Amino acid sequence: MNPVRDDLIHLLKLERIEENIFRGDSRDIGSAQVFGGQVVAQALSAAHNTVDDRVAHSLHAYFLRRGDMEAPIVYEVDRSRDGGSFSVRRVVAIQHGRPIFNLAASFHKQEDGLEHQDKMPDVEGPETLKNVPELLSGIIDKIPKKLKKFLTNERPFEFRPVQPIDILNPGVLPPVNHVWMKAVSELPNDDHLHQCLLAYVSDFQLLGTSLRPHGISNLFGGDSIQVASLDHALWFHRNCRVDEWLLYASESPNASGSRGFARGQIFKQDGTLVASVVQEGLIRVPDSGRKNRSPADPRLHNPIH
């Protein structure tokens, strides 16, 4: 058993207040507001709690306001439709009487049908790669105190970048990123739980792909850099286990208007495509921030991209 993993599972087991109303807590991962992936996963969990024999195949979400980690989040579920094969749910996350997040999710009765998929990128496997703590071991003394705790906190997922960046001096890189990821220990056999955890981890490692061609790390991009998820969409193509290695392959075809756009695909180690992700986020980098890249404030919406 792993206490960090168990705590995340506990976060996803929402308290049922009424038939379609649920309440959840938050955890501090080092940002000034609730981690977006947590809200996505909890909202999906709330929707799951109102659906019986169907699994999610897609979700679309908007981040409206910063989440307060000190206050509970109330999730109100609208049972929009229950058809012969599909069910649709709308979820509003509320804090202090105001919505902070909207989600629409669709669930499908599992059926057989046509099959095809993209090929997984030909990249190095996870076995020989270093995880994030190992990559930081040589530079940890150069990292400001306000970032050390954030970077070294134990997490429920392990990440092994295929093309790791030098966070002290990122350099200009192609807008492409490949990261292997998996839960730190074995999880129960529960398809709904694995979907919620995949939604949680899909908010990591994605938007930062938009920064790679600009020689910027959002951890060390200047005090005034703003990076925040605006919306998030996820399609579940096939079932998977998040306690087995998954490759998160992402690319950023565009950045403009202070917004970065990124899309990703998640593959099992055998090459099976299990999910697709799209996200747009706010990226504000004033000219002064580009010229004087002091360590960034870690208290951003989604700082580990």
Describe this structure in words.
The protein has 305 residues and is of the alpha+beta class. Helix content is 17%, strand content 34%. The chain contains 6 helices and 12 strands. α2 (36-48) runs antiparallel to α5. The radius of gyration is 19 Å and the shape is globular.
Concise overview:
It is built from 6 helices and 12 strands. It is α+β, with helices and mostly antiparallel strands and 305 residues long.
How many DSSP helices? 6
Gap between N and C termini, in Å?
27 Å
Structural class, please? alpha+beta
Spatial order of the strands forming the largest sheet: 1-2-4-5-6-3-9-12-11-10-8-7
Strand content: 25-35%
Number of strands: 12
Question: What is the strand and helix layout of this fold?
Answer:
Layout: H1 3-12, E1 15-18, E2 21-24, H2 36-48, E3 55-63, E4 73-82, E5 86-95, E6 98-108, H3 132-136, H4 145-152, E7 157-161, E8 176-183, H5 191-201, E9 226-236, E10 246-256, E11 259-268, E12 273-284, H6 287-291
Antiparallel strand pairs: 1-2, 2-4, 3-6, 3-9, 4-5, 5-6, 7-8, 8-10, 9-12, 10-11, 11-12
Task: Please supply descriptive tags for the structure shown above.
disordered C terminus; 305 residues; alpha+beta; 6 helices
